[in-house]
Amino acid sequence: MIIIGADHGGFKLKEEIKKYLDEKEIAYEDKGCYSEESVDYPTIAKEVASEVSKKKENIGILICRSGIGMTICANKFKNVRCALCYQENTAKFARMHNNANMLALGADYISVNDAICILRQFLATEFEGGRHEARVNLISEIEKENFK
């Protein structure tokens, strides 16, 4: 299941991504916001990241103007590895090397077409494991030490 959310700055891009997901018959749950009326991005990031944190099979998508605030907030949750991606290659390596389970997008810096391409790459890429597994495990150990 994909859990998606955006603040007011990412609302329009979120709606375009939802159209793509509908066309591809990819299941998702929209955690807001539901208009361009101003909202606090941490509230939306919390809704999405908490769902991803609970279920290993969930993938999260967060959108705000830059993607930075959403990324910072999402990475405060246990079991979340949120990557801010502006290109297909960053999405590919976020999944392949870092086993990212959340994608953050900056609506002010990418087109709808670029966002769809980035998302497509993110969803299509599997975690490579191998030498990267040990590094992701180190991240998990650091997380356990600091999330008490």
Explain what this protein looks like in three dimensions.
This protein has 148 residues and is an alpha/beta fold. It has a single domain (2-146), classed as Sugar-phosphate isomerase, RpiB/LacA/LacB (Ribose 5-phosphate Isomerase B, Chain: A). The protein is built from six helices and five strands; from the N terminus they run βαβαβαβαβαα. It has a five-stranded parallel beta sheet, with helices on both faces. Strand 1, helix 1 and strand 2 (28-30) form a beta-alpha-beta unit. Helix 4 (88-96) packs parallel to helix 5. It is globular and about 40 Å long.
How does the SSE layout of this entry go?
Blueprint: E1 2-6, H1 11-23, E2 28-30, H2 41-54, E3 59-64, H3 68-74, E4 82-84, H4 88-96, E5 102-106, H5 112-124, H6 131-146
Parallel strand pairs: 1-2, 1-3, 3-5, 4-5
What features would you highlight for this structure?
single chain, 148 residues, alpha/beta, 5-stranded parallel sheet, 6 helices, 49% helix, globular
CATH topology value: Ribose 5-phosphate Isomerase B, Chain: A
Uncertain runs with pLDDT below 50, 5 residues or more? none
Which structural class matches the secondary elements? alpha/beta
In terms of DSSP E residues, the strand content is 5-15%
Rg for CA atoms: 14 Å
- Report the span from N to C terminus: 28 Å
The CATH architecture comes to 3-Layer(aba) Sandwich
Q: Helicity range of the residues?
A: 40-55%
How many DSSP-defined strands? 5
**On the 0-100 scale, what is the average pLDDT?**
96
CATH class: Alpha Beta
Count up the helices: 6
User: What letter string, H or E per element, gives the SSE order?
Assistant: EHEHEHEHEHH
**Shape summary:** globular
How are the strands of the biggest sheet laid out side by side? 2-1-3-5-4
CATH superfamily: Sugar-phosphate isomerase, RpiB/LacA/LacB
Q: Mind describing the biggest β-sheet? A: 5 strands, parallel
What is the number of domains? 1
